[in-house]
Design a protein that fits this description.
This protein has about 100 residues and is mainly β. Helix content is about 5%, strand content about 35%. It has one domain.
């Protein structure tokens, strides 16, 4: 499957696990509480509208070290989240989440 390109999509924070999975809004996200080492699970629905959801490991203000695993730096904002580096988790959409907007590469 080739990479899908999209128009910019606004990131929407949906609180609560059930609401997040039931609503399944393209570009929406939720963040779990930190685990012991400070990492958090950042769940998101693919911005392309396919309905796939994915989880990535993030650090609030830092990029966690995880041997053999990708991680991201999250700015800690629920209103205008930013992730670095770019997100290419599912292989068909690749882009950036910057200041609360998902943008294709």
């Amino acid at each position: 499957m080739g990479e899908v390109k999209t128009e910019p999509v606004t990131a929407l924070n949906i609180q609560g696990k059930e609401a997040f999975f039931e609503q399944n809004v393209a570009g929406s996200f939720r963040v779990n509480d930190p685990v012991d080492d400070g990492r958090q699970q950042f769940w998101f629905v693919c911005p392309c509208g396919c309905g796939q959801n994915a989880m990535i490991a993030v650090g609030n203000g830092y990029k966690p070290e995880r041997k053999g695993r990708d991680t991201w730096n999250w700015n800690g904002s629920f209103e205008k989240p930013t992730l670095t580096p770019s997100v290419h988790d599912k292989g068909h959409w690749h882009g950036w989440l910057t200041d609360g907007v998902w943008r294709s590469c």
